[in-house]
């Protein structure tokens, strides 16, 4: 429940420096509220929303990067944390919170489906990592590297390793329906792009009846008679 205003003020008066008589807040209190939140040493980032109860004691992630270089399906190396030095595949990307989740790495164990009658299942859950805590792996030597975006002579935007100067290709990612467009092969019930782009109808100013008669070789010899209104 919500505490009464008087109890809330009394509890924070020593730390927030609030004038109870006037009901106003001093400048020191405003500055303390605007101070940067320090991340606890044992804090673990989670995927809960900032306004939920699960995240109310935590802190928000860093600001989203404007020039995002890590994509879903990339192979990266962890630079900090308990799995430092390990390489893994990016499973999820949270650009609005500067997070990436790696397959099978940076895991913690938790209970799922816990009820009063059952303690649930004890499963491993992958926790997110900050973008600054991972680095792309150069496929030429399998070592981490910093990258920057550049343009090729054909005008394609690519990622280039600053250490080796090689292009790091974008990963092949499945769509939500499980299809990889780059690896798709047409089946017997698929329409090829050539058939789709083939021009099979040429529009004209003739009516539908006139087009059908012309196609079937029907010649109309009758004349239109005048109509009269009475």
In short:
The protein has helices at 5-16, 27-33, 193-197, 208-216, and strands at 18-19, 24-25, 75-78, 87-94, 99-102, 107-112, 121-126, 129-130, 134-138, 143-145, 147-151, 157-161, 167-168.
Q: What can you tell me about this protein's structure?
A:
The chain is of the alpha+beta class. The chain has a domain at 63-180: SH3 type barrels. Helix content is 14%, strand content 23%. It contains 4 helices and 13 strands. The strands form 4 sheets. A 6-stranded antiparallel beta sheet has the order 8-5-4-3-9-10, with no helix packed on it. It has a 3-stranded antiparallel beta sheet with strand order 11-12-13, with no helix packed on it. It has a two-stranded antiparallel sheet with strand order 1-2. The longest helix has 12 residues, at 5-16. The chain is elongated, with a radius of gyration of 33 Å.
Radius of gyration: 33 Å
Number of helices: 4
Q: What is the number of beta strands?
A: 13
CATH class of the domain at 63-180: Mainly Beta
Q: Give the N-to-C terminal Cα separation.
A: 86 Å
Order of helices and strands: HEEHEEEEEEEEEEEHH
Residue windows where pLDDT falls under 50 for at least 5 positions: 1-21, 57-64
Q: Summarize the biggest pleated sheet.
A: 6 strands, antiparallel
Secondary-structure arrangement, i.e. CATH architecture of the domain at 63-180: Roll
CATH topology of the domain at 63-180: SH3 type barrels
Structural class of the secondary elements? alpha+beta
Helix content: 10-25%
- Strand order, main sheet: write it out: 8-5-4-3-9-10
Strand content: 15-25%
What's the pLDDT, averaged over the residues? 78
Q: What is the overall shape?
A: elongated
InterPro entries: KOW, Rib_uL2_dom2, Ribosomal_uL24, Ribosomal_uL24_C, Ribosomal_uL24_CS, Ribosomal_uL24_KOW, Translation_prot_SH3-like_sf
Domain KOW: 69-96
GO molecular function: RNA binding; structural constituent of ribosome
Keywords: Mitochondrion, Ribonucleoprotein, Ribosomal protein, Transit peptide
